[in-house]
Structure formats: structure tokens, C-alpha cells
Amino acid sequence: GPGPAEMYAGLQELGVANGEDLKETLTNCTEPLKAIEQFQTENGVLLPSLQYALPFLDLHGTPRLEFHQSVFDELREKLLERVSAIALEGKVEERYKKLEDLLEKSFSLVKMPSIQPVVMCVMKHLPKVPEKKLKLVMADKDLYKACAVEVKRQIWQDNQALFGDEVSPLLKQYILEKENILFSNDISFLQNFFSPSPKTRRQGEVVQKLTQMIGKNVKLYDMVLQFLRTLFLRTRNVHYCTLRAELLMSLHDLEISEICTVDPCHKFTWCLDACIREKFVDNKRARELQGFLDGVKKGQEQVLGDLSMILCDPFAINTLALSTIRHLQDLVGQDTLPRESPDLLLLLRMLSLGQGAWDMIDSQVFKEPKMEAELITRFLPLLMSFVVDDHTFTVDQKLPSEEKGPIPYPSTIPEAFTKFLQENRIACEIGLYYILHITKQRNKNAFLRLLPALVETFSDLAFSDIFLHLLTGNLTLLGEEFALEEFCTSLFDGFFLTACSRKENVHRHVLRLLLHLHHKVAPAKLESLQKALEPTKQSGEAVKELYNQLTEKLELRKPSPAEVTETPSMELPLPAVPTPASR
């Protein structure tokens, strides 16, 4: 506990006697008992009625300390209630004047553990604590720690570095949480990275803590946005863009108009948030979003930097890309060209604004990226032709086959498609989402046809964590195909293993997939994969850990030599059915 010096810190300045004074009195007096009695009278509770009550308590063996302590606790509670009441009553200037006077009187006792809560309570209710007091609090680690967040905000708004130290571990935690979801061992096409609704995500610990730290303070909000921009520039990590949107929407949920009305992205983000919730941009909201983009006035172009960061949030990109694929399918049915669909053009415009976020914030040149005509006149029609190929193939399968024999599925990819995926970022993003779409439809033919185009893509997008997380989830729908040597060779040798040695994250995703599907993979293939995926000296802990888990699972599957010999020859061995436990 606190030493005696701390317990009585600051009493002398107020002219109140403390333990040291008593010691001095006793050291220099001739009659100690009389001196003690005098000290008690001078420093006791000054109530005439107590004169008779105290000796009565003495008879009952109640120590004076206990009595004084309980009186003190009672008074402190009353005082705390009174302070909170003062903060709400009377004219604004008057109530703050009262609190400031109280702070002046009590601040010297702030180190006394018993009085500290009262001083902290007074400061908490003052919208502007005097500068000198804030400096004293800041200089003392323990006092700073004990402060209410209302007081800390006043300290932080003029101390960016200190605020940065408080925010930094939260941002690290946020990125880590996102990565843990992407690399989670639970693989499913039903539950993935994008499943939680925006409202649910905003309840996350980090967003809630940051919201609490910011309060209604625009200056602190701006600081956090500045941190997020800087980190996004430094790391290119798109999860910072998600946090930018989540933070704004969290303040929106709490109706903090002080901040929402001054953030020029507020209405745009709010509308986009509704689209993300539905995982689709409908026509009405599309018009609204377009209105915001068209409404950026001369001299305010800087807002494009903020809007692009909001659109670079993977949850926004996911929604725009899914909507694009849906639109393309509709266009096939309507026999319409992409360039004739304003809704589709708007989706592309927002995709390119989002994908251009890093360059825009880096270059500080705030204008919308130019859309390449070829994307609309050549690439999207190509994708539509793939949709047509699928329809034709399906119809052909159903027609009574004459002498002509079965029509094979088209196996070649137009060279233009591969080139677009390598050279055009938006084309690549849409192409990858198309591949996710056909995988989800369990369309093995289309998947195997387009897979070779993924080996080399724009800035290696096909080996990014978000894509691989979604692809591994969707591949569980093609589980039965893993028994086929040819399918495994195309998928593993033709795609995954081309990048495993140079990209640790790809190594991790393949191991995740095998941990989930190993019992479906052709045994010979599994053995060669186990060799190919063995960690090297350079491999990180995560890869080694996953590899060990996989090895353990495979060990459990091997029949022991005893079992093999004991099968009676006349009975046919039953096919091994994976038990849930062996997954």
C-alpha cells in the first residue's frame, strides 16, 4: 500500500496537521497523553454531540480510526454525488466556476489515495481543465493512469505522440484479428471473412475502444484518420481502410453529429454501408452513390482521397465485385453490351477509385483514375462469352446426341483474358471474382479452364490472402474432385505450388486446405504433396505448426501393419469412411 508520506501528501499545504506533526509534538513534549488528547481535540470531527458519543464507542472497542474512516467514506460519497450534481445545475459559467474553485482547493491532495477519486471526479466534469493541472497529471504516470477518459482527451488533443502511443497497440491488434480470420483453420463456403454484418463488425473491441477514446472530439478523430492514412501508405494494408469506415459508422451509430457532420464522407459511407450489408448495390443506392461522386466540387477534390480509402475497404470491393458479376450475368440474358449499362459503368468507376486509393494518397493528385475503354469493350464481353459457353455446354449435354458424339467443354483460354489479368488491375479483380463465382457453382469445367490464367496476375492478386481465403472456402464444394489425379495436378502443381516457395502465405493456405480435405485426396497425390509442402529452414512458425498438424492427421489415417494382415481374405474390405474426428 502507499507509504505514510503518500497517504498524507499535500495536507500541510492546506494547514491540516498530519502524522509527521503528531510525531514532532510527541517528541518535544513532557506529557505525551495530554498532548495526544489535545491533538485529537484540535484535529477531530468538530461536532459538539460527538464529545459524548466517542467515549461510548471506545467502551464498545470500536477503534477511533474505524469511526473516522467510516465518517470519511460517507462524506466522500456525498462529495462525489455533489460534484456530479454541480456539473449539471445552474448557469454554465457558474457551475464551471464552482468546479474550478473546488479543483484549486483539492488538487494538492490528488496523491492521497483516499481523496484522489474526488479530485479526478472534479476534473472529469470540467470541459477545460486548467493547462497547469493537465501538465502535472501528464508528468505523473500514476495520475495519468487514474484519469478519466474525459481528462485524457484534453491531454491527447495537444499531444499527438502520447495519443499515438495509446492508439498504436489497438491498431496492431486490429490487423492481427483480421489476419487470424483469413488464416483460420475453419474452412467453409458458408462462413467466411465477409460473413459478419457491418453492425456486428463495429461491435469489435478495437472499434469500440477507439470510439470511446475519441468521444465527440473532432481533433482526436482527425488524428486517428491521419494515423490510418499514414499506416496504409507505409504498409499498403487494406484493413486500415476497413477500420476508417468502421470508425465513422460507429460514431454514426451513436449519433455523434459533432463528428459525422464534419466528415465529408459521412453520407457516402452510410449509403455504401447499406450496400455492404446487402452484399449488393441496388439501383436506388447506385444513383445515390453516383450523386456523391458527381457532386465533388472544384477545390474540394481532396475528398476523393478519403472516398477512395472508403472504397478500398475489402468489404466494399467485395460488394462491388459481386454486384459486377451479377450485372454481367443479367446482361447476357438481356443481350445488352456492358457499355450500354450505366449501373455497370458506375460499379467499375467505384472499383477503380477504390483500387486507386494508395496511388492517389501517395501522389496527392486528387482526380478519378481514367477508366480504360478496353476493359469495357473487350474484357467484360470476354467474361460474358464464358457465361455463354457454360449455357451452351449445359444445353448441348441435354440434347439427344446424334452421331456427332459428346461436345467437349472448351479447354483453351483466349490469350486476351490472360493478358488482361496480368496487366489491368480492375480486370484482374473482376476476373478473380468470376473464378470464385464458378467455383461456388461447382462448375469444375470452367474452373479448370480458367485456372492457368491465375499463375501470373496483376501484382500477384491471385496469391493475396483474401482471394485464397475465399477460394479455399469455395473449393470445399468441389471436394469429390480431389480424388481425381488430374484435378489435383491442375490445382496443386499447376497453381498453388508455383508460388509456395516464394510466398509463405500461399504455403499456409494450401496446408489449411489439405488439413480440411486430406481425406478426399488421392493417396498417391497426398504423399507427393506432403513431400512438396515440407517446411524449409526459412519457413515461419505458422507453416511449421500447420505442417505438423497435417502430418499428425495423416499418421492417424495410416492403418497399423497388424490391421492389414488380419483382414480375412473372403471379406471385401470396406471403403474408409472419414469419421468427423479425423477431419
UniProtKB/TrEMBL annotation:
PANTHER family in alphabetical order: NEGATIVE ELONGATION FACTOR B, NEGATIVE ELONGATION FACTOR COMPLEX MEMBER B
Region of interest: Disordered: 557-583
GO cellular component: NELF complex
Protein's UniProt name: NELFB factor
Gene responsible for this protein: Nelfb
One Pfam family cited in the UniProt record for this chain: COBRA1
One biological process term in Gene Ontology: negative regulation of transcription elongation by RNA polymerase II
Xref: InterPro entries: COBRA1
Lineage: superkingdom: Eukaryota
